[in-house]
Backbone:
């Protein structure tokens, strides 16, 4: 039990905050829907509850993924977060379907004007503020993981460019809360417009739009985590680590190099070519230096390195001048 609690402390904090915020919003939106009967409020309730469940699973998965390797599982548990995310998106997919279905029904058969407009607008305003806060926190975490600390109030737009460098859990929270913030705003506008124009079918249309946005997140999350569960190469770090190794004067070429994502972490397998006339003891010192260098790179937790004799053929084709290298955070000594 103590180990499990310790693991939870290392879980993805933005996902836990997002889960608690969305659970609170789902409850108050459900209460508001009960009193107003507003279908846009129903869509937002389903959205918030789906996000809460998804982000809570992501938090648990990100915590369990940090469990140390065991003799039975020598590669560690990094991909657990991908497997948990794949399961969690099923919940969101079901809620997305229900949201679209309810919106379509209301669009075809719009009800009379919904009651309690001030209650609905007040709840959506609270939701917009809280979701914006969580989105800002997630954006700052994205920038932190990319080595860009100073962003301030511009964290959200700046984080877009660095989203692919974020950890799976952080990326998921960012995407879901962007949709959630947009959904609150759309539902707010739909209620106001329907109230002043009498076009009540708009609420059903917005409900379908929110459901479709949820489906988009489901698709993106599924594809990202399916690749992670299978074992995806980190192309940028592949080139970066290869070039670091090639800078060593004792390495003449790279026979093979794999940089595989294991959840939030990277496992590196490298076969480097070198001068066969060097002594085994000397090459052992070179190997220790290279392993220490690679292990110092961002998110690298395991390195397997071996040497082979120079064969006179060039296998490593990448060059520093032709390749976009990671920021200073990744290039730290």
Residues:
């Amino acid at each position: 039990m103590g180990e499990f609690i310790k693991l939870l402390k290392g879980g993805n904090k933005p996902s836990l905050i997002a889960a608690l915020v969305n659970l609170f919003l789902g409850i108050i939106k459900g209460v508001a829907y009960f009193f107003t009967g507003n279908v846009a409020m129903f869509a937002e309730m389903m959205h918030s509850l789906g996000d809460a469940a998804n982000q809570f699973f992501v938090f648990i998965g990100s915590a369990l993924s940090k469990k140390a390797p065991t003799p039975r599982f020598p590669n560690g548990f990094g991909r657990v977060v991908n497997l948990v995310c794949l399961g969690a998106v099923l919940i969101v997919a079901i809620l997305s379907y229900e949201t679209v279905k309810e919106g379509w029904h209301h669009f075809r058969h719009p009800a009379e004007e919904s009651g309690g407009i001030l209650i609905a607008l007040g709840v959506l305003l609270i939701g917009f503020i809280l979701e914006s806060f969580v989105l800002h926190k997630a954006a700052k975490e994205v920038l932190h993981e990319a080595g860009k600390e100073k962003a301030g109030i511009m964290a959200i737009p700046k984080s877009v460019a660095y989203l692919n460098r974020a950890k799976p859990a952080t990326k998921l929270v960012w995407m879901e809360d962007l949709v959630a913030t947009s959904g609150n705003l759309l539902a707010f506008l739909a209620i106001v417009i329907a109230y002043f124009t009498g076009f009540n079918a708009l609420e059903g249309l917005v409900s379908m739009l929110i459901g479709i946005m949820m489906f988009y997140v489901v698709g993106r999350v599924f594809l990202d985590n399916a690749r992670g569960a299978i074992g995806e190469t980190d192309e940028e770090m592949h080139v970066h680590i290869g070039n670091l190794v090639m800078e060593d004067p004792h390495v003449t070429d790279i026979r093979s190099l794999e940089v595989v994502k294991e959840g939030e972490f990277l496992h590196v397998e490298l076969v480097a070519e070198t001068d066969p006339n060097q002594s085994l003891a000397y090459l052992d010192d070179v190997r220790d230096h290279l392993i220490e260098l690679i292990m110092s790179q961002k998110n690298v937790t395991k390195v397997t390195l071996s040497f082979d004799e120079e064969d006179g053929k060039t296998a490593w084709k990448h060059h520093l001048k032709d390749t976009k290298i990671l920021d200073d955070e990744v290039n730290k000594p």
In short: The chain is about 65% helix and 10% strand. The two ends are 37 Å apart (CA to CA).
